Amino acid sequence: MRTQVAIIGAGPSGLLLGQLLHKSGIDAIILERQTGDYVLSRIRAGVLEQVCIDLMDEAGVGKRMHEEGLIHGGFDLLVDGQRHRIDMNKLTGGQNVMVYGQTELTRDLMEAREAQGLPTVYSADNVQVHDFDTDKPRVTYEKDGQTHTIECDFIAGCDGFHGVCRKSAPRSAIKEYEKVYPFGWLGMLSDTPPVHHELIYANSPRGFALCSQRSLTRSRYYVQVPLTDKVEEWSDDAFWNELRLRLDDEANEQLVTGPSIEKSIAPLRSFVTEPLRFGRMFLAGDAGHIVPPTGAKGLNLAATDVKYLHNALKEFYEEKSEAGIDRYSEIALKRIWRAERFSWWFTQLMHKFPDDGEIVSKFQRAEIDYLLNSESGQKTIAENYVGLPLDFGQ
Ligand code: APR
Ligand code: PHB
Fold it and tell me: Domains of the chain, with CATH numbers?
Protein backbone atom coordinates (compact mmCIF):
# COMPACT_ATOMS: atom_id res chain seq x y z
CA MET A 1 0.00 0.00 0.00
CA ARG A 2 1.11 3.54 -0.67
CA THR A 3 -0.21 6.91 0.49
CA GLN A 4 1.10 10.45 0.82
CA VAL A 5 0.55 10.86 4.56
CA ALA A 6 0.22 7.94 7.00
CA ILE A 7 -1.70 9.22 10.02
CA ILE A 8 -1.35 7.26 13.25
CA GLY A 9 -4.36 7.70 15.55
CA ALA A 10 -8.05 8.41 14.89
CA GLY A 11 -8.64 10.85 17.75
CA PRO A 12 -9.61 14.44 16.96
CA SER A 13 -6.07 15.29 15.72
CA GLY A 14 -5.78 12.44 13.23
CA LEU A 15 -9.34 12.71 11.97
CA LEU A 16 -9.20 16.49 11.53
CA LEU A 17 -5.86 16.26 9.72
CA GLY A 18 -7.24 13.55 7.45
CA GLN A 19 -10.24 15.70 6.58
CA LEU A 20 -8.21 18.84 5.87
CA LEU A 21 -5.70 16.90 3.76
CA HIS A 22 -8.54 15.37 1.76
CA LYS A 23 -9.95 18.85 1.08
CA SER A 24 -6.52 19.81 -0.27
CA GLY A 25 -6.34 16.75 -2.51
CA ILE A 26 -3.67 14.98 -0.41
CA ASP A 27 -4.12 11.24 0.25
CA ALA A 28 -3.92 9.82 3.74
CA ILE A 29 -4.57 6.52 5.50
CA ILE A 30 -5.42 6.53 9.21
CA LEU A 31 -4.31 3.64 11.43
CA GLU A 32 -6.08 3.36 14.80
CA ARG A 33 -5.29 0.83 17.51
CA GLN A 34 -8.82 0.80 18.95
CA THR A 35 -12.27 0.30 17.43
CA GLY A 36 -14.28 3.37 16.38
CA ASP A 37 -16.81 2.70 19.15
CA TYR A 38 -14.06 2.64 21.75
CA VAL A 39 -12.70 5.99 20.50
CA LEU A 40 -16.19 7.46 20.82
CA SER A 41 -16.66 6.12 24.34
CA ARG A 42 -13.91 8.33 25.78
CA ILE A 43 -15.33 11.38 27.56
CA ARG A 44 -13.19 14.48 27.18
CA ALA A 45 -13.66 18.25 27.53
CA GLY A 46 -15.98 20.23 25.32
CA VAL A 47 -15.12 23.91 24.99
CA LEU A 48 -14.12 25.04 21.49
CA GLU A 49 -12.19 28.21 20.73
CA GLN A 50 -13.14 30.16 17.62
CA VAL A 51 -10.07 28.82 15.77
CA CYS A 52 -11.28 25.28 16.39
CA ILE A 53 -14.81 26.16 15.22
CA ASP A 54 -13.33 27.73 12.07
CA LEU A 55 -11.25 24.62 11.40
CA MET A 56 -14.27 22.34 11.65
CA ASP A 57 -15.93 24.61 9.07
CA GLU A 58 -12.84 24.58 6.86
CA ALA A 59 -12.89 20.78 7.05
CA GLY A 60 -16.55 20.88 5.93
CA VAL A 61 -17.87 19.18 9.07
CA GLY A 62 -19.29 22.10 11.07
CA LYS A 63 -23.02 21.69 10.36
CA ARG A 64 -24.15 19.78 13.46
CA MET A 65 -21.70 21.70 15.63
CA HIS A 66 -23.39 24.98 14.68
CA GLU A 67 -26.86 23.49 15.19
CA GLU A 68 -26.20 21.94 18.58
CA GLY A 69 -23.21 23.82 20.04
CA LEU A 70 -23.93 26.41 22.73
CA ILE A 71 -22.24 29.81 22.45
CA HIS A 72 -20.87 31.10 25.74
CA GLY A 73 -19.78 34.71 26.17
CA GLY A 74 -18.56 34.34 29.75
CA PHE A 75 -17.99 32.07 32.74
CA ASP A 76 -18.07 32.41 36.52
CA LEU A 77 -15.29 32.17 39.05
CA LEU A 78 -16.61 31.15 42.47
CA VAL A 79 -14.29 32.11 45.31
CA ASP A 80 -15.08 32.33 49.02
CA GLY A 81 -18.74 31.73 48.26
CA GLN A 82 -18.90 34.71 45.86
CA ARG A 83 -19.53 34.40 42.12
CA HIS A 84 -17.70 36.72 39.70
CA ARG A 85 -18.48 36.67 36.00
CA ILE A 86 -15.67 36.97 33.47
CA ASP A 87 -17.42 38.65 30.56
CA MET A 88 -15.20 37.20 27.84
CA ASN A 89 -17.25 38.66 25.05
CA LYS A 90 -16.96 42.22 26.32
CA LEU A 91 -13.35 41.88 27.44
CA THR A 92 -12.15 40.51 24.09
CA GLY A 93 -14.14 42.76 21.76
CA GLY A 94 -16.81 40.20 20.88
CA GLN A 95 -15.20 36.76 21.09
CA ASN A 96 -16.93 33.68 22.50
CA VAL A 97 -16.34 29.97 22.95
CA MET A 98 -18.64 27.11 21.99
CA VAL A 99 -19.68 24.23 24.24
CA TYR A 100 -19.67 21.11 22.03
CA GLY A 101 -18.38 17.79 23.35
CA GLN A 102 -15.19 16.32 21.96
CA THR A 103 -17.08 13.06 21.50
CA GLU A 104 -19.56 14.79 19.18
CA LEU A 105 -16.80 16.53 17.23
CA THR A 106 -15.01 13.18 16.82
CA ARG A 107 -18.24 11.53 15.68
CA ASP A 108 -18.80 14.24 13.03
CA LEU A 109 -15.27 13.76 11.69
CA MET A 110 -15.59 9.95 11.68
CA GLU A 111 -18.92 10.04 9.87
CA ALA A 112 -17.63 12.48 7.24
CA ARG A 113 -14.59 10.26 6.65
CA GLU A 114 -16.73 7.18 6.26
CA ALA A 115 -19.22 8.94 3.97
CA GLN A 116 -16.36 9.98 1.68
CA GLY A 117 -14.98 6.45 1.65
CA LEU A 118 -11.60 7.55 3.04
CA PRO A 119 -9.45 4.72 4.39
CA THR A 120 -9.23 4.17 8.15
CA VAL A 121 -7.94 0.92 9.60
CA TYR A 122 -9.39 0.37 13.07
CA SER A 123 -8.05 -2.33 15.45
CA ALA A 124 -4.61 -2.02 13.82
CA ASP A 125 -2.17 -3.88 16.08
CA ASN A 126 1.52 -3.36 16.60
CA VAL A 127 1.79 -0.18 14.52
CA GLN A 128 5.45 0.66 13.92
CA VAL A 129 7.04 3.63 12.17
CA HIS A 130 10.24 3.14 10.14
CA ASP A 131 12.80 5.12 8.11
CA PHE A 132 11.36 8.55 8.88
CA ASP A 133 14.92 9.89 8.76
CA THR A 134 14.88 9.15 5.00
CA ASP A 135 12.51 10.40 2.28
CA LYS A 136 10.89 6.94 2.09
CA PRO A 137 9.23 6.37 5.47
CA ARG A 138 7.15 3.24 6.10
CA VAL A 139 4.56 2.16 8.59
CA THR A 140 3.83 -1.47 9.41
CA TYR A 141 0.87 -2.88 11.33
CA GLU A 142 -0.91 -6.15 11.99
CA LYS A 143 -4.54 -6.83 11.30
CA ASP A 144 -6.31 -10.19 11.53
CA GLY A 145 -2.99 -11.96 11.98
CA GLN A 146 -1.39 -10.45 8.84
CA THR A 147 1.38 -7.86 8.65
CA HIS A 148 0.82 -4.91 6.29
CA THR A 149 3.19 -2.18 5.09
CA ILE A 150 2.30 1.35 4.05
CA GLU A 151 4.86 3.36 2.11
CA CYS A 152 4.40 7.10 2.43
CA ASP A 153 5.98 10.56 2.10
CA PHE A 154 5.23 11.61 5.68
CA ILE A 155 4.07 10.16 8.99
CA ALA A 156 1.74 12.21 11.19
CA GLY A 157 1.96 11.05 14.81
CA CYS A 158 -1.56 11.86 16.06
CA ASP A 159 -1.52 8.91 18.44
CA GLY A 160 -1.96 10.63 21.78
CA PHE A 161 0.16 10.61 24.91
CA HIS A 162 0.63 6.80 24.98
CA GLY A 163 1.24 6.47 21.24
CA VAL A 164 4.09 4.82 19.37
CA CYS A 165 5.39 7.80 17.35
CA ARG A 166 6.94 9.92 20.11
CA LYS A 167 8.43 6.75 21.63
CA SER A 168 10.06 5.91 18.27
CA ALA A 169 11.92 9.22 17.99
CA PRO A 170 15.64 8.90 18.77
CA ARG A 171 16.16 9.65 22.49
CA SER A 172 19.13 11.89 21.71
CA ALA A 173 16.94 14.14 19.52
CA ILE A 174 14.08 14.70 21.96
CA LYS A 175 13.58 16.68 25.14
CA GLU A 176 10.54 16.23 27.34
CA TYR A 177 9.27 18.66 29.98
CA GLU A 178 6.82 17.38 32.57
CA LYS A 179 4.95 18.45 35.69
CA VAL A 180 2.58 16.07 37.45
CA TYR A 181 0.03 17.65 39.82
CA PRO A 182 -0.66 16.18 43.26
CA PHE A 183 -4.40 15.59 42.68
CA GLY A 184 -6.87 14.38 40.06
CA TRP A 185 -10.27 15.38 38.71
CA LEU A 186 -13.21 13.12 39.44
CA GLY A 187 -15.65 13.76 36.59
CA MET A 188 -19.30 12.82 36.37
CA LEU A 189 -21.65 13.04 33.39
CA SER A 190 -25.39 13.04 33.98
CA ASP A 191 -28.56 13.65 32.04
CA THR A 192 -29.63 16.54 34.21
CA PRO A 193 -29.98 20.21 33.21
CA PRO A 194 -26.80 22.22 33.94
CA VAL A 195 -26.78 24.11 37.22
CA HIS A 196 -26.07 27.38 35.38
CA HIS A 197 -26.23 28.56 31.76
CA GLU A 198 -22.47 29.17 31.79
CA LEU A 199 -19.53 27.30 33.35
CA ILE A 200 -18.60 27.81 37.02
CA TYR A 201 -14.98 27.32 38.14
CA ALA A 202 -14.89 27.09 41.95
CA ASN A 203 -11.98 27.52 44.33
CA SER A 204 -13.29 26.28 47.67
CA PRO A 205 -11.59 25.35 50.94
CA ARG A 206 -12.44 21.69 50.12
CA GLY A 207 -10.74 21.95 46.73
CA PHE A 208 -11.58 22.84 43.13
CA ALA A 209 -14.91 22.12 41.46
CA LEU A 210 -16.16 22.75 37.92
CA CYS A 211 -19.73 22.88 36.68
CA SER A 212 -19.69 22.27 32.95
CA GLN A 213 -22.18 20.95 30.43
CA ARG A 214 -22.61 19.18 27.11
CA SER A 215 -26.10 20.44 26.23
CA LEU A 216 -29.16 21.98 27.86
CA THR A 217 -30.02 18.56 29.29
CA ARG A 218 -26.60 17.03 29.95
CA SER A 219 -24.21 18.19 32.67
CA ARG A 220 -20.56 17.50 33.29
CA TYR A 221 -19.23 18.17 36.79
CA TYR A 222 -15.80 17.72 38.34
CA VAL A 223 -14.33 17.79 41.84
CA GLN A 224 -10.64 17.79 42.74
CA VAL A 225 -9.74 14.55 44.54
CA PRO A 226 -6.56 13.01 46.02
CA LEU A 227 -4.66 10.82 43.56
CA THR A 228 -5.16 7.88 45.90
CA ASP A 229 -8.97 7.96 45.50
CA LYS A 230 -10.58 5.15 43.49
CA VAL A 231 -13.58 5.90 41.31
CA GLU A 232 -15.40 2.77 42.63
CA GLU A 233 -15.32 4.34 46.09
CA TRP A 234 -17.30 7.35 44.89
CA SER A 235 -21.04 6.67 44.82
CA ASP A 236 -23.20 9.13 42.88
CA ASP A 237 -24.59 10.45 46.17
CA ALA A 238 -21.11 11.01 47.57
CA PHE A 239 -20.20 12.93 44.41
CA TRP A 240 -23.26 15.20 44.56
CA ASN A 241 -22.70 15.84 48.26
CA GLU A 242 -19.09 16.80 47.74
CA LEU A 243 -19.98 19.03 44.79
CA ARG A 244 -22.62 20.80 46.90
CA LEU A 245 -20.09 21.51 49.63
CA ARG A 246 -17.92 23.34 47.07
CA LEU A 247 -20.69 25.48 45.51
CA ASP A 248 -22.59 28.58 46.66
CA ASP A 249 -26.19 28.69 47.92
CA GLU A 250 -27.57 29.95 44.62
CA ALA A 251 -25.97 27.07 42.70
CA ASN A 252 -27.14 24.56 45.28
CA GLU A 253 -30.72 25.78 44.89
CA GLN A 254 -30.48 25.23 41.12
CA LEU A 255 -28.56 21.94 41.21
CA VAL A 256 -30.51 19.02 39.77
CA THR A 257 -29.00 15.65 40.66
CA GLY A 258 -29.52 12.29 38.98
CA PRO A 259 -27.74 9.04 38.15
CA SER A 260 -24.32 9.23 36.52
CA ILE A 261 -23.81 8.09 32.92
CA GLU A 262 -20.06 8.09 33.35
CA LYS A 263 -17.67 8.68 36.23
CA SER A 264 -13.88 8.64 36.06
CA ILE A 265 -10.77 10.06 37.70
CA ALA A 266 -8.16 11.77 35.51
CA PRO A 267 -4.68 12.76 36.69
CA LEU A 268 -3.45 16.26 35.83
CA ARG A 269 -0.23 16.77 33.93
CA SER A 270 1.67 19.45 32.01
CA PHE A 271 3.89 17.86 29.36
CA VAL A 272 5.68 19.14 26.26
CA THR A 273 7.97 17.38 23.79
CA GLU A 274 10.53 19.33 21.80
CA PRO A 275 10.82 19.24 18.83
CA LEU A 276 7.65 18.05 17.09
CA ARG A 277 9.45 16.99 13.90
CA PHE A 278 11.83 14.10 13.39
CA GLY A 279 12.78 14.01 9.71
CA ARG A 280 9.59 13.04 7.93
CA MET A 281 7.59 12.31 11.06
CA PHE A 282 5.58 15.01 12.87
CA LEU A 283 3.83 14.92 16.23
CA ALA A 284 0.48 16.68 16.70
CA GLY A 285 -2.00 16.91 19.59
CA ASP A 286 -1.60 14.84 22.75
CA ALA A 287 1.30 12.91 21.15
CA GLY A 288 3.40 16.04 21.64
CA HIS A 289 1.89 17.76 24.67
CA ILE A 290 -0.61 17.48 27.50
CA VAL A 291 -2.21 20.31 29.47
CA PRO A 292 -4.06 20.04 32.76
CA PRO A 293 -7.77 20.39 31.86
CA THR A 294 -8.37 23.69 33.69
CA GLY A 295 -9.33 26.02 30.83
CA ALA A 296 -10.02 23.21 28.31
CA LYS A 297 -7.06 23.85 26.04
CA GLY A 298 -6.24 20.22 25.07
CA LEU A 299 -8.54 19.84 22.09
CA ASN A 300 -7.99 23.41 20.93
CA LEU A 301 -4.22 22.98 20.91
CA ALA A 302 -4.56 19.71 19.02
CA ALA A 303 -6.68 21.51 16.43
CA THR A 304 -4.18 24.31 15.92
CA ASP A 305 -1.23 21.88 15.61
CA VAL A 306 -3.23 20.19 12.89
CA LYS A 307 -3.92 23.48 11.15
CA TYR A 308 -0.22 24.37 11.07
CA LEU A 309 0.72 20.85 9.93
CA HIS A 310 -1.91 20.81 7.20
CA ASN A 311 -0.73 24.20 5.91
CA ALA A 312 2.87 22.97 5.87
CA LEU A 313 2.04 19.77 3.97
CA LYS A 314 -0.14 21.65 1.51
CA GLU A 315 2.73 24.05 0.83
CA PHE A 316 5.03 21.05 0.30
CA TYR A 317 2.78 19.44 -2.30
CA GLU A 318 1.43 22.55 -4.03
CA GLU A 319 4.48 24.79 -4.03
CA LYS A 320 7.21 22.16 -3.70
CA SER A 321 8.51 24.16 -0.75
CA GLU A 322 9.84 22.70 2.50
CA ALA A 323 9.68 26.05 4.30
CA GLY A 324 6.41 25.16 6.05
CA ILE A 325 7.47 21.72 7.25
CA ASP A 326 10.77 23.20 8.41
CA ARG A 327 8.92 25.74 10.58
CA TYR A 328 6.09 23.51 11.82
CA SER A 329 7.68 22.55 15.11
CA GLU A 330 8.78 26.07 16.01
CA ILE A 331 5.44 27.72 15.18
CA ALA A 332 3.32 25.05 16.87
CA LEU A 333 5.49 25.04 20.01
CA LYS A 334 5.13 28.81 20.46
CA ARG A 335 1.39 28.46 20.70
CA ILE A 336 1.66 25.29 22.78
CA TRP A 337 3.86 26.91 25.43
CA ARG A 338 1.47 29.85 25.74
CA ALA A 339 -1.49 27.54 26.31
CA GLU A 340 0.62 25.37 28.65
CA ARG A 341 1.44 28.45 30.69
CA PHE A 342 -2.21 29.52 30.90
CA SER A 343 -3.40 26.01 31.84
CA TRP A 344 -0.72 25.69 34.54
CA TRP A 345 -1.48 29.16 35.87
CA PHE A 346 -5.25 28.63 35.94
CA THR A 347 -4.70 25.26 37.66
CA GLN A 348 -2.49 26.68 40.38
CA LEU A 349 -4.89 29.60 40.87
CA MET A 350 -7.98 27.45 41.42
CA HIS A 351 -6.84 24.23 43.20
CA LYS A 352 -5.96 23.33 46.74
CA PHE A 353 -2.36 22.07 46.81
CA PRO A 354 -2.09 19.52 49.64
CA ASP A 355 1.54 20.28 50.51
CA ASP A 356 1.18 24.07 50.55
CA GLY A 357 0.22 25.82 53.75
CA GLU A 358 -2.47 28.36 54.44
CA ILE A 359 -0.25 31.15 53.22
CA VAL A 360 -0.52 29.83 49.66
CA SER A 361 -4.34 29.92 49.89
CA LYS A 362 -3.99 33.54 51.00
CA PHE A 363 -1.76 34.26 47.97
CA GLN A 364 -4.36 32.65 45.71
CA ARG A 365 -7.13 34.77 47.23
CA ALA A 366 -5.04 37.91 46.86
CA GLU A 367 -4.27 37.10 43.24
CA ILE A 368 -7.91 36.42 42.43
CA ASP A 369 -8.90 39.60 44.27
CA TYR A 370 -6.37 41.53 42.19
CA LEU A 371 -7.51 39.96 38.92
CA LEU A 372 -11.17 40.57 39.55
CA ASN A 373 -10.61 44.20 40.46
CA SER A 374 -8.35 44.97 37.52
CA GLU A 375 -9.68 45.27 33.99
CA SER A 376 -6.31 44.23 32.61
CA GLY A 377 -6.35 41.21 34.94
CA GLN A 378 -9.76 40.16 33.66
CA LYS A 379 -8.68 40.78 30.07
CA THR A 380 -5.69 38.50 30.54
CA ILE A 381 -7.94 35.64 31.65
CA ALA A 382 -10.50 36.32 28.94
CA GLU A 383 -8.12 36.57 25.97
CA ASN A 384 -6.34 33.37 26.97
CA TYR A 385 -9.60 31.55 27.59
CA VAL A 386 -11.08 32.39 24.16
CA GLY A 387 -7.68 31.48 22.64
CA LEU A 388 -4.87 33.68 21.42
CA PRO A 389 -4.94 34.54 17.70
CA LEU A 390 -3.16 32.02 15.45
CA ASP A 391 -0.56 34.53 14.35
CA PHE A 392 -0.02 35.96 17.88
CA GLY A 393 3.65 36.90 18.23
CA GLN A 394 4.66 34.99 15.06
N1 APR B 1 -1.30 2.77 17.01
C2 APR B 1 -2.46 3.29 16.51
N3 APR B 1 -3.23 4.17 17.17
C4 APR B 1 -2.82 4.54 18.38
C5 APR B 1 -1.62 4.06 18.96
C6 APR B 1 -0.86 3.13 18.23
N7 APR B 1 0.26 2.62 18.71
N8 APR B 1 -1.47 4.62 20.18
C9 APR B 1 -2.53 5.42 20.36
N10 APR B 1 -3.36 5.38 19.29
C11 APR B 1 -4.63 6.08 19.11
C12 APR B 1 -5.49 6.09 20.37
O13 APR B 1 -6.24 4.89 20.49
C14 APR B 1 -6.36 7.30 20.14
O15 APR B 1 -7.57 6.99 19.50
O16 APR B 1 -4.38 7.44 18.86
C17 APR B 1 -5.54 8.20 19.24
C18 APR B 1 -5.11 9.48 19.93
O19 APR B 1 -6.24 10.24 20.24
P20 APR B 1 -6.30 11.25 21.49
O21 APR B 1 -5.67 10.62 22.66
O22 APR B 1 -7.70 11.71 21.60
O23 APR B 1 -5.33 12.44 21.04
P24 APR B 1 -5.56 13.61 19.99
O25 APR B 1 -6.26 13.13 18.77
O26 APR B 1 -4.26 14.32 19.86
O27 APR B 1 -6.62 14.54 20.70
C28 APR B 1 -6.28 15.48 21.65
O29 APR B 1 -7.73 14.55 23.26
O30 APR B 1 -6.89 13.96 25.35
C31 APR B 1 -7.61 14.88 24.64
O32 APR B 1 -7.22 16.89 25.81
C33 APR B 1 -6.93 16.18 24.68
O34 APR B 1 -8.78 17.09 23.77
C35 APR B 1 -7.47 16.74 23.46
C36 APR B 1 -7.49 15.69 22.48
C1 PHB C 1 -15.61 19.85 30.33
O2 PHB C 1 -16.73 20.20 29.99
O3 PHB C 1 -15.30 18.66 30.36
C4 PHB C 1 -14.61 20.88 30.67
C5 PHB C 1 -14.93 22.20 30.51
C6 PHB C 1 -14.03 23.19 30.85
C7 PHB C 1 -12.80 22.84 31.36
C8 PHB C 1 -12.45 21.51 31.50
C9 PHB C 1 -13.37 20.52 31.16
O10 PHB C 1 -11.94 23.81 31.73
Answer: 5-72+97-178+268-352 (3.50.50.60)
